[in-house]
Design the sequence.
């Protein structure tokens, strides 16, 4: 405590020691009042933003969102209320044109498994390995319906994002041929319950298969197009 | 012990100390005590920027985390935030049109501009870490953080989120009072010395002002006065020009009005600093409280198996053998699962008792170190530890600072005098030994 005061004294340097004049004291009082109000409002908004929907946030939802977004968003519920209990693998296969002019289909490439392999024994996983594909798929699932129809702008963007990400991973050539069309699917497996538990979990994979799409220039990173 | 037990803010306006005279009417003891407390609180929040060591360690922690992250992602930078990324500039543009987020990367889609911004983000983190021109660097650091993150919002995680929030709050704190090059310079000049012309400061101020002017007039930057800003009604133009003007006013007052104007600005800066410190502490409490209370509702946290699952996720198991060994024991998993929830729910309340709070901090730092390794989330964990550090006791921080200073002095002593400055040495730590 004593230290704080000493530091404070030092920081204030010259000009202190005398009490402030009345106008200055008024400025200080206003400054203090504004700061206290701002702190209270900010923490109040932050609280309402993370709290479950309640009486206040239902009535003033628009004002709260207006305050919080876009810069004060909080997004840390990865392990709550329950931790993720399934491995979701995003897989892709391509229809290629062979040099002889024929068309064949490649096998499924497990892009998530590639991420997993890159993360294994890696003390500093990159966001490109840990977050990019995982969150792109999340984004896609959240903004598409069961018939794979996008819901508005975010849906369209998420579809395009996923296609570009997959093309970035696959590259323009596969198995010696040029990639013409690509198909995606996800394979979701529940994690088995712990060995000490008596719970039985169905760990059979669940697949979600997306329709084929034809690769266009929009699906390739700009730098490579130039 | 400086953890500012949040000053009990009384309803305003507080009474400034006034010359004593006989009170108009006889008053009860309680009223007198309340008034004394109000005066004390007023003196405390206006008289000093509280928690100098805590804010310094938060500054060092977050700038270090972000610097390390930027260096680690250097090979992937163009894929994550730049022109080679699957989240193209056009797509980011469309999304930002809608949500109004700030990103200097949207001012131009050229690769050169991207490299410039990434380079400036690196540089500003390094200089903020060292505490060189701390107040200016904290603003540039914030701009770097939010520019990169808002350019590609779908590659971040909880760690990025915490860095984003804290980078914004740090701009309002006097986080360079100790352990910084600024503090060293001030100490060399000696207390009470008259402010110098400070050519470096003037140049920096002119440069940042010109850059802002260029952005405002010469680019597509959406720098609005009242819309698209950090807060409703405050545009980024207001926020950034405002900060710039305040820096100019502080220079003017120090150089040309060392009396009352300077003292007044000083008091206002203390008030804002202390407010931001309360917000930082409040955010950390909210973070843990919400994480804990949501977990309480989860069936896996209730049955004591929650921890088992993340350890088996492909994306969060860099050391499968280690995870297997830990997850093999049902009892251990349950103890850690319950312990996590208890610590998170309890944390805000433990602040009422210093000793319990310090024990909690040790537990939380250990838990985050565990997460860093076991779940492969080192940057998230570092950011969380940096946030926790705002609650560390001053004695401990001064002890750490003193040790760092002694170690540095010993290293210096062993080397020939000419190479006394080690490359990569964190100069900020050396200043710790100073009172």
Sequence:
């Amino acid at each position: 405590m004593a230290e704080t005061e000493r530091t404070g004294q030092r920081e204030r340097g010259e000009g202190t020691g005398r009490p402030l004049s009345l106008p200055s004291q008024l400025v200080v009082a206003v400054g203090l009042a504004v700061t206290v109000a701002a702190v209270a409002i900010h923490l109040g908004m932050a609280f309402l933003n993370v709290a479950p929907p309640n009486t206040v946030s239902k009535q003033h939802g628009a004002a709260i969102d207006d305050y919080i977004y876009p810069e004060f968003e909080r997004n840390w519920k990865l392990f709550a209320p329950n931790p993720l209990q399934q491995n979701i693998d995003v897989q892709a296969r391509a229809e290629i044109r062979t040099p002889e002019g024929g068309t064949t289909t490649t096998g499924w490439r497990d892009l998530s498994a590639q991420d997993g392999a890159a993360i294994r024994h890696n003390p500093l996983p990159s966001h490109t390995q840990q977050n990019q594909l995982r969150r792109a798929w999340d984004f896609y699932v959240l903004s598409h319906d069961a018939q794979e129809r996008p819901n508005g702008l975010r849906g369209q963007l998420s579809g395009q994002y996923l296609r570009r990400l997959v093309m970035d991973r696959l590259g323009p050539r596969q198995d010696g041929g040029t990639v013409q069309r690509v198909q995606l699917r996800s394979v979701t497996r529940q994690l088995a319950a712990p060995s000490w538990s008596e719970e039985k979990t169905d760990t059979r994979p669940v697949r979600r298969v997306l329709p084929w799409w034809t690769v266009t220039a929009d699906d390739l990173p700009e730098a490579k197009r130039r | 012990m400086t953890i500012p037990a949040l000053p009990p803010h009384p309803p305003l306006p507080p009474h400034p100390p006034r010359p004593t005279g006989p009170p108009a009417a006889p008053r009860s003891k309680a009223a007198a005590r309340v008034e004394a407390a109000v005066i004390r609180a007023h003196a405390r929040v206006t008289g000093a920027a509280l928690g100098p060591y805590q804010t310094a360690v938060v500054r060092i922690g977050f700038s270090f985390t972000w610097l390390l992250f930027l260096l680690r992602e250097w090979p992937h930078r163009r894929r994550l935030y730049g022109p080679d990324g699957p989240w193209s500039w056009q797509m980011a543009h469309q999304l930002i049109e809608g949500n109004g987020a700030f990103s200097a990367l949207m001012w131009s889609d050229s690769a050169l501009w991207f490299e410039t911004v990434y380079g400036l983000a690196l540089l500003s983190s390094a200089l903020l870490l060292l505490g060189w021109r701390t107040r200016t660097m904290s603003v540039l650091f914030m701009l770097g953080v939010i520019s990169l993150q808002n350019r590609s919002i779908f590659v971040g995680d909880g760690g990025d989120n915490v860095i984003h929030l804290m980078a914004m709050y740090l701009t309002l704190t006097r986080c360079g009072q100790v352990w910084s090059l600024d503090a060293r310079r001030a100490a060399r000049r000696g207390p009470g010395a008259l402010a110098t012309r400070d050519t470096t400061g003037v140049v920096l101020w002119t440069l940042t002002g010109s850059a802002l002017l260029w952005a405002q007039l010469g680019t597509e930057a959406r720098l609005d006065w009242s819309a698209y800003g950090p807060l409703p009604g405050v545009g980024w133009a207001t926020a950034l020009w405002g900060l710039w003007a305040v820096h100019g006013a502080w220079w003017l007052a120090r150089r040309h009005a060392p009396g009352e104007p300077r003292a007044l600005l000083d008091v206002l800066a203390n008030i804002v600093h202390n407010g931001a410190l309360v917000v930082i502490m409040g955010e950390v409490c909210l973070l843990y409280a919400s994480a804990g209370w949501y977990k309480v509702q989860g069936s896996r946290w209730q049955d004591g198996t929650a921890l088992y699952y993340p350890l088996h996720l492909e994306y969060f198991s860099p050391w499968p053998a280690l995870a297997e060994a830990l997850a093999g024991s049902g009892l251990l998993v349950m103890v850690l699962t319950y312990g996590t929830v208890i610590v998170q729910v309890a944390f805000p309340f433990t602040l009422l008792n210093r000793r319990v709070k310090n024990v909690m901090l040790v537990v939380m730092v250990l838990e985050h170190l565990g997460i860093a390794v076991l779940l492969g989330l080192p940057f998230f964990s570092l950011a969380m530890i940096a946030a926790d550090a705002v609650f560390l006791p001053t004695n401990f921080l001064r002890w750490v600072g003193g040790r760092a200073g002694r170690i540095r002095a010993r290293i210096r002593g062993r080397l020939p005098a000419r190479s006394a400055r080690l490359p990569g040495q964190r100069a900020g730590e050396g200043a710790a030994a100073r009172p």
Summary: The longest helix of chain B spans residues 260-296.
